[in-house]
Amino acid sequence: MIIERATEADLDAIVELERHSFPRPWPRSTFETELAAPQSRLEVGRLGGVIVGFVNYWLVADELHIHSITTHPDHRRAGLGTQLLDHMLAAGRAVGATLATLEVRAGNAPAIALYTRAGFTTVHTRPRYYQDNHEDALIMTMPLLAS
Ligand SMILES: CC(C)(COP(=O)(O)OP(=O)(O)OC[C@H]1O[C@@H](n2cnc3c(N)ncnc32)[C@H](O)[C@@H]1OP(=O)(O)O)[C@@H](O)C(=O)NCCC(=O)NCCS
User: What is the share, in percent, of the chain residues with pLDDT greater than 90?
Assistant: First the structure.
């Protein structure tokens, strides 16, 4: 999989993937904002030119904030999520970030397993945080050691 910066031309595919992956998908306007924001990176993963995943993260001060990671349902459990996550961690290290942080639904077992395997731990729980189903939010972090 090749991972590269998204462009306006990728937004349809990103929005489509988002719709298939999240109970409360972000609207297109959110991705347009992320594409333009200087601290934000919106990147896609392509297999044979076809978008099979995307990530959105912020590089703020000395932290990497992971906002979204998604792989296409037809391509899950094939290592693409790990590749996308490793890519974000490397991007954080490359700019000197010392901490990676993210928020995840407590019931999102696949994502929590992915993050835990990478070295993230839960440092805080926000009870009944999500308005749609009152699910808890977990705040997970991981130190980014230079490598
Ligand atoms: C979370 C997500 C990105 C994982 O992507 P993926 O391409 O399947 O990830 P990988 O193939 O690299 O899986 C890495 C590891 O994560 C864990 N994992 C992934 N999916 C899992 C599942 N359904 N159940 C349990 N563990 C899972 C496993 O430890 C897996 O390693 P293994 O396959 O060797 O057992 C994908 O399921 C997804 O897009 N989900 C919808 C969007 C989402 O919830 N994103 C996270 C919140 S922003």
Answer: 95
